[in-house]
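User: Can you write out an input/output pair for a complex, sequences first and structure second?

Assistant: Here is one pair. Inputs:
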Amino acid sequence: MKLSFQKNDLLSTLQVVGKAVASKTTLSIMECILVDATEGQIRLTGNKNDFGIESICPGDILEPGKIALEARLFQEIIKRLPQTEGKNILLSTEENGNCTIQCEKSVFKIMGRNPDEFTSLPSVEKQEIVEISQLSLRNMINQTIFSTASGENNKKMTGEYFEIIDNQFSITALDGHRIAIRKTELSESYDNCSAIVPKEVLSELSKIISGGLEDKVEICFSKQYLQFSFEDTIVVTQLVEGEYFHVRQMLSSDYETKIRLNRKQFLENIDRARILARDNDKQPLILKIEDQSLSLKIVSDIGRMDAEMPVQQEGKDLLIGFNPTYLMDALQNIEEEEVDLYFTISRSPVFIRDQEESYNYMILPVNFNAEAVG
Amino acid sequence: MKLSFQKNDLLSTLQVVGKAVASKTTLSIMECILVDATEGQIRLTGNKNDFGIESICPGDILEPGKIALEARLFQEIIKRLPQTEGKNILLSTEENGNCTIQCEKSVFKIMGRNPDEFTSLPSVEKQEIVEISQLSLRNMINQTIFSTASGENNKKMTGEYFEIIDNQFSITALDGHRIAIRKTELSESYDNCSAIVPKEVLSELSKIISGGLEDKVEICFSKQYLQFSFEDTIVVTQLVEGEYFHVRQMLSSDYETKIRLNRKQFLENIDRARILARDNDKQPLILKIEDQSLSLKIVSDIGRMDAEMPVQQEGKDLLIGFNPTYLMDALQNIEEEEVDLYFTISRSPVFIRDQEESYNYMILPVNFNAEAVG
């Protein structure tokens, strides 16, 4: 095999497919990137346990062939080669797997791996293909993913729930203490479909779909896999098995108290309070809503903080406690200057949502001893 | 005690004295900052095992007094208070050590520590006071400190050697494999004096002397301590005991081979070579000087790299091996576009130095098996 590349083309393709390369495994072929130039295009593939990325790299095929190369080493070499304009990076392999990477007067010789050991991506049987803007998908993932669980206790909580109903696309994440939902309207209607997508894949995906509102991603739903296609790249992931939680039953639009407040000011007050909860994440932040005003209070072994800010209050007064970090996570992922919070009683969750429910963040309250915090 | 501050004044003073606060100790008073407003000024002090920093903070003394406050907590609170223009931060303490920090509608109550437990800085008996620009001192420290040793095997190697001879000020660091020396001319002459300064202190000091060429530091030499004074701040450090190495005997200005080369190009080639030495820092980079050209070669379990670059050669051809990281460290701390390297034989060190010896970096070579690397 003999290929020539321009440095930046090869480097950016490696950075994309490198997201699906295992970093420490016992199966060392999973630490490799497959370079396949047998079918008229130079196709690079990374394939981890549960997801894989394939991307076409611009370049010239001087002699077809394929090889698997250790991803980290391959990337480091390309990154450090001289920055030149032309297709000056020459990658060539011999029968025995010896691989030479040359650029101007720098020559690397490393050992390649047998490309036949490499597991190729599953071919996805296409059921429904949905088109969405890269910007929307990226934002929706980033604005919900913090609400997934990390442990292995409940596998379904470690994924995000993708759901299409007509022309509505929503992403839901929950971890047992909170729910995050983002919804958007698609430009056309589709058959209803859904999938639980592992969060790890989405976290990597959100880094490589860097396009804007006009750039599209195709999401292809199938029984066992989800496939994302955009530009010269496809990402294929296994799905989390099982039926997702019945989230709609946990939501409610009734409320007894509604406050509208300045999001940034609220965030700054919560951030202050968190200083005193640093050694104990369970220390509740207590909110007191009364007379168009919100008081915040936290009491811990370290000390005590009191703060106060004006709000537009509708309905009853209320005293309620929350994990301050959960409040921050939700508020940091909203862009609006003013937000609405909906409460019922002190044992019921708060909902932070807009009119159209393009976002809806639910957070369960925390019990506290009202006497002790004076 | 009752004091009022402007947020930025207090925050920047805390960041300075905070450099001399222990982060995890059994003596928890060493994790504190002393606030002393008993003598007409607000003096903040941090004092670690072997060095301390004291700085005057602008502010109003409404009621004199002193208190010790946990440094990290104190900093975090001030950092997160509202950003206001006036002296709106109010710090007040009660007899029992209760401390209130208030800014607008945010109020923190934390426990202070007994200020009498706090060890004050030693008073330094002034022998010789040397004045140098903040910029020069900062650069000289940063450009040599990488050559100090980290272990406890040889305490003297963990410090930097400060030496004044007439109007010459030099800083020397060595770790058994290499020596780094930076020298500068002072604006006047002083009595000869010297000290071995712990590198940890210098590393923190270089972060807080942020001034330019016109801003001065006074270095006060005494038997047991060194004191740096600048603006409203003093830094006092214990010295490393003992006599420093006789470095002058290790230097030599004779050479058999001299090459002048482009520093950046050399650095890029070394950086490339280091990819293949990543699992084994001892893997030598082999330099071959011949016919006005420098070949670089490295061979490891991972693979092999060859590169070549033009040099201006004077004297004999040479084949010699080095730890690539040591070469990089020295070259990265030189600003000149072109540098001169002086060699004698393959078992003798290289010297990278300029004409005036404002810098002189010595690196010992590494043995290698010339056969094996073909």
